[in-house]
Amino acid sequence: MNIFIKNTIVLAILSTCCYGLVDIEKYLKVCDRNSAEVNDCLTEAVQEGLAALADGIEEIGVPPIDPYRQKDLRIEYKNNQILAKLVAKDIYVEGLKTATVHDARLRADDDRFHLELDLTTPRVNIRGQYLGEGRYNSLQIKAHGHFSTNMTNLVYTWKLDGVPEKNENGTFVRITDFYMRPDVGSMKSHLTNDNPDSRDLTELGNRFTNQNWRLLYRELLPYAQANWNKIGISVANKIFLKITYDQLFPSKS
Ligand SMILES: *[C@@H]1O[C@H](CO)[C@@H](O)[C@H](O)[C@H]1NC(C)=O
Ligand SMILES: *[C@@H]1O[C@H](CO)[C@@H](O)[C@H](O)[C@H]1NC(C)=O
C-alpha cells in the first residue's frame, strides 16, 4: 500500500478512536481538583477557555460558542387573553468571549460534581429570523422578518451539576443540569416585519417592547432558561463526556 494512504488511514483511526488521547491541555488549562487554589485556577482556566472555545474545538466536536448559532427555537406563550407562537431561526448569540470570569466554586468528589462560575458580559447581541403569530382575544396578527436584541451589563452565575459515570473508556462527568439567571442592565430590541398586513403594528410593537423590556424579560425568562439549560448541558457534555474526569480535573494531591 502506498505510504501516504497508510499514513492517512492511521491518522484517521487515531483521530476518531481514542478520546482519552485528546491532549486537552492544548486547549484548556486544567486544575487539580484537590488543590487549595482550585477556585482561582478555575477562574483563570475558564477565562482562557472562553477565548479558546469561541471558535470551537473541532478535534472533539465542540461548536463555536461566540457567536453561538442555534438552528431554531420554538416558543408558545400564554397569558390570559394573549396567545403568542414564535419560531426563531438562524439565531446568533454574540458577545460571550468578552465575558469576565470573576470567581469559581468547585465541589468535586467521587459521586458528585458541582461548579459555579460568576461572570459579567458588557454586551450581548442576539439576532436572527422569526415567524410570529399572536392572538389577543379575537384579534390575530402574523408577522415575519428579522429581529435583533442588544443587552448590556449582564451579571450571571453558571451553575453546572453532574455525576461521574464509568464506561469502557474511563470515568467521565455527565453534566445533568445547567442553570443561569442573568441580571441585565438594559435591553433594546428591533423587529422588522415583512408582512404588509401587520407592518403598521410593528413600530408600535417595537416601542412597547423597548418601554416594557424589564417586564417582558421577566415573563420570557423561564422560556430562555429552558433553552439555556438544554444548550449548556449539550455544549458542556461535548467536553465532559470526551475528556476523562482525571484528565479534566486531575487529583494530584
Ligand atoms: C468509547 O470510545 C470509543 C472510541 O472513541 C467510542 O466510539 C465509544 O462511543 C466510547 N464509548 C462510550 C460509552 O462513550
Ligand atoms: C445592536 O447593536 C448592533 C451593533 O452595534 C447594531 O447594528 C444593531 O442595530 C443594534 N440593535 C438594536 C435593536 O439596537
Automatic annotation (TrEMBL):
UniProt keyword Plastid present: no
Cellular component terms per the entry's GO annotation: extracellular space
InterPro entries cross-referenced by the UniProt entry: Haemolymph_juvenile_hormone-bd (IPR010562), To_sf (IPR038606)
GO process terms (BP): circadian rhythm
Keyword Lipid biosynthesis: no
Leader peptide range in chain numbering: 1-20
Keywords linked to the UniProt accession: Biological rhythms, Signal
Sequence similarity: Belongs to the TO family.
Record protein name field: Odorant-binding protein 4
Name of encoding gene: obp4
